[in-house]
Automatic annotation (TrEMBL):
This is Pyrimidine-nucleoside phosphorylase. The gene is deoA. Keywords: Glycosyltransferase, Metal-binding, Transferase. Its EC number is 2.4.2.2. SMART domains: PYNP_C.
Length: 434
């Protein structure tokens, strides 16, 4: 077999065999197939696409290219949740304890990542003492004992994807649905999930900006799940404005605590209940959507979700007092209220711009080397559809570096579009695909 022939075949729009896909991925992982051939192949896939079987095979080959985490000693069905990003997405911090409180095991591996704010691991590190560097034994024992643990990704998970993703990034081949779908799913499979709930975002702040693209991506990932025997459900949700109020690390931990107390933002709460429902169904701890939703709502109203968060924090070395006293989280030295330049209704909030504003204050990483300031970020006081008067506060910026605040404020103001009429609101959840 030769890489040349495989590239040629895909270039001409033909279907690749399982052996050909495996040959390519194995060869590339070992360094036997060079970057230039892999780039040409990725570009051929970009133009010609791949069918369901090819995409599933590629996913499996990448999942097998490195370590495969064995969670079989954890009792029950392990459901993982993945979100395709967005701005101010605090769902994991809410869902992990909430779903665990309902009896489903949550063995969550998370990353740091680039972006407007840190990843889940960064956010958790704003809790003093909290360690996400767990040994595999401790990770598994914790889930067996407490139903929940959150660890930083370790080991060599899907190295083929890591290499290929980096290559796609510099060869304009990232936005190919079969390549994105196989990339995301290969990592979930390698990290040991029995079943997967996906939150595919659409809109201005999403990775997949178009609605059609998001639905296609969601369907492709659900099909991969079927092909490889991991039950998968996808939700397509709105990311045309940031989720919740808070964008920032410690600020989002506080928002997660509020949400577990039943006092969180409506959109974040609703999204967590929707995703949590699917997780409980896949974990087979609930028999119907109604039952699952009731269980989750009860875990909020009776405080068991919040108690589970305390247990999680204690078990991983953190100070659980932050839950009752969020002022113990890192606090920024300064704050600035951003005022509405005119009255009317909020027509649009460009999520991407809000994210950039938070990043400029230091909440996120521009490059892998950037240091995050866990205390900084912003909270939105007004969301799409809200009425406001001139001079009313639309958002508050929290910062430590005075040289950054002017630019952050300007970008935030640009993100808000204010008009005279009440706009029509996007649905939060567009579709559930299973
Ligand atoms: N996220 C991933 O993990 N992979 C992609 O290809 C795109 C987004
Ligand atoms: Ca948020």
């Amino acid at each position: 077999m030769r890489a040349y022939d495989i590239i040629h075949k895909k270039r001409d729009g033909k279907k690749l065999s399982n052996q050909e896909i495996e040959f390519l991925i194995k060869g590339y992982t070992k360094g036997e197939i060079p970057d230039y051939q892999m780039s040409a192949w990725a570009m051929a896939v970009f133009f010609q696409g791949m069918d369901k079987e090819e995409t599933a095979k590629l996913t499996e080959a990448m999942a097998k290219s490195g370590d495969n985490i064995d969670l079989s000693s954890i009792k029950g069905i392990k459901v993982d949740k993945h979100s395709t990003g967005g701005v101010g997405d605090t769902t994991t911090l809410v869902l992990a304890p909430l779903v665990a409180a309902c009896g489903a095991p949550v063995a969550k591996m998370s990353g740091r990542g680039l972006g407007h704010t840190g990843g889940t691991i960064d956010k958790l590190e704003s809790i003093a003492g909290f360690s996400t560097a767990l040994s595999m034994d401790k990770f598994i024992d914790s889930v067996n004992q407490n139903k929940v643990a959150i660890a930083g990704q370790t080991g060599n998970l899907a190295p083929a994807d890591k290499k290929l993703y980096a290559l796609r990034d510099v060869t304009a081949t990232v936005d190919s649905i079969p390549l994105i779908a196989s990339s995301i799913m290969s990592k979930k499979i390698a990290s040991g999930a029995d079943a997967i709930v996906l939150d595919v975002k659409t809109g201005n702040g999403a990775f997949m900006k178009s609605y059609e693209g998001a639905v296609k991506l969601a369907k492709t990932m659900v099909e991969i799940g079927q092909e490889v025997g991991r039950n998968t459900i996808a939700i397509v949700s709105d990311m045309d404005q940031p989720l919740g109020w808070a964008v920032g690390n410690a600020l989002e931990v506080k928002e997660a605590i509020d949400t577990l107390q039943g006092e969180g933002p409506h959109d974040l709460t609703e999204l967590c209940l929707t995703l949590g429902t699917q997780m409980l169904l896949l974990a087979e701890v609930a028999n119907s959507t109604e039952e699952a939703r009731e269980m989750l709502e009860r875990a909020i109203s009776d405080g068991s979700g919040l108690d589970k968060l305390k247990e999680l924090i204690t078990n991983q070395g953190g100070n659980p007092e932050v839950v009752d006293n969020p002022n113990l989280l890192p606090q920024a030295k300064y704050s600035l209220e951003v005022k509405a330049p005119r009255g009317g209704y909020v027509q649009r909030i460009e999520a991407e711009e809000v994210g950039i504003s938070a990043m400029i204050l230091g909440a996120g990483r521009e490059t892998k080397e950037s240091e995050i300031d866990l205390a900084v970020g912003l909270t939105l006081a007004k969301k799409v559809g809200d009425q406001l008067t001139e001079g009313e506060t639309i958002a508050t910026l929290y910062y430590n570096d005075k040289t950054k605040v002017k630019e952050a404020k300007e970008i935030l103001l640009k993100a808000y579009q204010i008009g005279n009429t009440k706009p029509e609101l996007n649905p939060l959840i567009y579709e559930i695909i299973d």
